[in-house]
């Protein structure tokens, strides 16, 4: 099928590249010329394992093209994905200006025939009808308007950064919402190779479940999923804070409750709290949507509050260990909001850097990706070191912020010899606390 994906970020580029890889003819559109130039040369502008290979193969097969020309993309596609960002406005609502600009351009560029316009971006409930309205506005005055037809579909994305290609080929479910059977049928046809697990790791599993529903429910599913996951993390963090006080170990507690199939073990890791580009903005957008309709979301507000407190907990632990932080040097292991991504949006490390520098500490950081890329220039109040020895040198404490696998194999004995004080705060409960204590560290976990 002919597909156009508008917006080539973490979601759009992975979606476009994977749909091309399974055999569709895809044009990816972005208004960032630098990105388009890079993608045209076969490179990925984002770090995502497996993505360069999928792009390279799709280019080789002649299945994918990149352009800044949205009109060309719209004319090509029978299915048009909107996959631009929907960040938070300062008040917490969704900033819909990018979706609006794209919907208007689609309206202006539509030619005769039928198209499916797919909201892949996470958009507030009711946006499907709103997009329809903006597209119609964009079409106004076209001479052939009665020969242009389209339907809007909500097809929220659930991929996780760092494993986005895997998630696209191995989804837990696909959600499509629309009032149009014609559009829903085309979406089923589009996703058939993925539904049939033709590119999945385990091809023997039953087909991927497809949730076919109305527009509003599809949009709500995305928000409810993210709000639930964020709440699960805030819940276990609250349990961790009680564990800290009563002398229980939250890792043991999480194992004990996670084995209950009604609870499940995923998203039960206590730590510095959730971050990234989605949870914060989506939970807050849902809180505001509820308020627009006269409902106050008590659980979701508590979920956000617990997360804010969790981010300050590491500073409190450092203060308990070192007393005064003014003039102290703190080293951060990891900066990205999770491993295997270069995404720094709403990363807990940024809050930590702010808090520590406000208290007069000198902050250094090492991150396997940030330290080795051009990204390292873009931060204030932190010295981004290029290797672990420089990071450890003279530190009064080290904080593990991101659970990168390679931090498990650091030579912690050697690190100890470089540090001024042997304090390590494991803000992800990721390291072997017993082994570190045996080496002579003061090991401080979360809730244990
Ligand atoms: P992103 O910021 O990485 O990418 C957005 C892209 O859109 C950028 O490349 C930007 O240049 C481009 N763009 C903006 N305006 C444009 C325009 N007028 N024309 C063409 N291109 C334009 O965003 P993302 O992380 O991929 O997220 C996209 C959407 O998907 C958001 O609504 C987000 O909430 C949702 N989502 C994200 C994730 C994730 O893990 N990142 C997961 C699920 C859903």
Automatic annotation (TrEMBL):
Which pathway does UniProt place it in?
A: Nucleotide-sugar biosynthesis; UDP-alpha-D-glucuronate biosynthesis; UDP-alpha-D-glucuronate from UDP-alpha-D-glucose: step 1/1
GO MF, one annotated term: UDP-glucose 6-dehydrogenase activity
SMART domains, sorted:
UDPG_MGDP_dh_C
Superkingdom per UniProt: Bacteria
* Gene3D superfamilies with a match to the protein in the record: Cytochrome c1, transmembrane anchor, C-terminal, NAD(P)-binding Rossmann-like Domain
The positions flagged as active site in the entry are 278
A Pfam family for this UniProt protein? UDPG_MGDP_dh_C
- Alphabetically ordered keywords of this record: NAD, Oxidoreductase
Positions binding substrate in this chain are 158-161, 222, 267-271, 275, 338
Name the InterPro entries on file.
6-PGluconate_DH-like_C_sf, NAD(P)-bd_dom_sf, UDP-Glc/GDP-Man, UDP-Glc/GDP-Man_DH_C, UDP-Glc/GDP-Man_DH_C_sf, UDP-Glc/GDP-Man_DH_dimer, UDP-Glc/GDP-Man_DH_N, UDPglc_DH_bac
Segments forming domain UDP-glucose/GDP-mannose dehydrogenase C-terminal: 331-433
Could you tell me the Gene Ontology terms of the biological process aspect for this record? polysaccharide biosynthetic process
Task: Please name the PROSITE patterns in this protein's record.
Answer: PROKAR_LIPOPROTEIN (PS51257)
Query: What family is this?
Result: Belongs to the UDP-glucose/GDP-mannose dehydrogenase family.
From the Swiss-Prot or TrEMBL record, give the protein name: UDP-glucose 6-dehydrogenase
